[in-house]
Amino acid sequence: MTTTSAPSLTQRPTWQALQTHFVEIKDRHLRDLFAEDDHRGERFAVEDVGLYLDYSKNRVTAETIRLLIELAEDCSLRERIEAMFRGETINVTEHRSVLHVALRATRDEVFEVDGKNVVPEVHAVLDKMADFADRVRRGEWKGYTGRPIRAVVNIGIGGSDLGPVMAYEALKYYSDREITFRFVSNVDSTDFAEATRDLDPAETLFIISSKTFTTLETMTNAQTARDWSLRTLKDDQAVARHFVAVSTNAEEVSKFGIDTANMFEFWDWVGGRYSMDAAIGLSIMVAVGPDNFRSMLAGYHAMDLHFRTTPFERNLPVLMGLLTVWYNNFFDAQTVGVMPYEQYLKRFPAYLQQLTMESNGKHITLDGRLVDYQTGPIFWGEPGTNGQHSFYQLIHQGTKLIPCDFIGFMQTLNPIRDHHDLLMANVFAQTEALAFGKTADEVRAEGTPGWLVPHRTFEGNRPTNTILAERLTPEVLGSLIALYEHSVFTQGTIWNIDSFDQWGVELGKVLAKRIIPELEGRDEVPLSHDSSTNTLIKRYRAHRADTT
Ligand code: G6Q
What we know:
Layout: H1 13-25, H2 30-36, H3 40-43, E1 45-48, E2 51-54, H4 62-74, H5 77-85, E3 112-113, E4 116-117, H6 119-137, E5 151-155, H7 162-170, E6 180-184, H8 189-196, E7 204-209, H9 216-233, H10 239-242, E8 243-247, H11 250-256, E9 263-265, H12 282-288, H13 290-309, H14 316-330, E10 335-340, H15 348-360, E11 378-380, H16 392-397, E12 404-409, H17 419-436, H18 440-445, H19 453-456, E13 464-469, H20 474-495, H21 506-520, H22 531-543
Parallel strand pairs: 5-6, 5-7, 7-8, 8-9, 10-11, 10-12, 12-13
Antiparallel strand pairs: 1-2, 2-13, 3-4
The structure holds glucose-6-phosphate.
């Protein structure tokens, strides 16, 4: 394990060298950096695994990249990557291996957890998923009354929801349009009610996706789904035809009444937010078919190999991760915007929010110390061009520095007239405008009256990455997700934190469990919270409608 008590990050000479370099470079403008080097746009670009990353519009020089890579080496990034791939227990606070890379391994590869090769199990589950998905898609998996399945509802939350929803939307073009797909996550009953209001229980299959099979929201929705099905189907035996489970917890699955033969397994070395490429992706596989799902895994795998073997100066996730550190820790940028110029990627920013923020929103180092530097930034975003007509104003002319990733494709999957050229013109125009801005002289030269000139001036120097791929295929989606996964890993390694635990979500869960009986018990249950929480609960008790 590589969790030795290293010097604090900010004490490292490699960090201090970056600090000195930052002072020299912070006021340099991208206009000057481009003027000094006619080939900057080609020099600061890398292409591999079907993705082209142009990072030239960042506030960096070759020296910055060199120093960032030195920092990465000093923080043992190379060794940490190997430790992950070797199945070491790098998730130290949960004492687990972190082997999502094994989920996309080819059949002949070997990934070991505690000396056991896990790849055969991975493929056994994938084969079982493929068999099930094919049967549903071909109409061979019949509901209790003998009718084929026409609707699939995934019930899960967090890592058991965001990946499936995002990938289902991303790959909708490749999906079977004869089957309706819905995703229920929120314990708010409206989510379930709206997702099922037009479905027929005799033709609806529920996939209960929960690693632990104890999550309050998912278990509540699963029970509601069971009631909803049985209200029409009227026989407990129907559960076996209309419910399957994705979980690590066979005992709880069985208690719920789902036959464990209809359970798709995964393992504790797969983190929730890294699990859509495991059985948690079952709904995606039913939607797009096993071949497309396997292509997606191949895309992930290609990026895994790239990450493991490519020198850092040409390593896409390493470069992106280091650039995030650069803005987060030296420019004090608080957020990162991710703007996919592809409608099918509309849920990608929401997915990335969990991947990035649940992974790197930590303030204690691997050796138990409080950090004295910033860790994970806030990730957010919207598909282009919509954002341009709302929040881009702040990115262009606000007081905050917001590095952004722009994601675009050479070809659309739905060519209509000149829409795609218009879309991509906006990608190039926005990144150009953000980098170069518009000087006061340029604004004046347009005849703008003097008092209006400052308002219409764009200072520029706003950094962006541009990520381009040929078209949105399952493979490209897999590579894109793995790109961000490994970028997150790179950042977490520099910050010396555990990117694979999530203790921060526990407290709220525990407190909610304590409050539930207090709401249901009305005035009989005494309250012992603070005066604000007590008053809010009393108010709710007084007005609540009893539906239990
Ligand atoms: C992800 C988190 C979390 C988890 C959900 C659902 O990394 O652990 O988002 O995925 O809390 O958990 P279950 O799958 O156990 O229901």
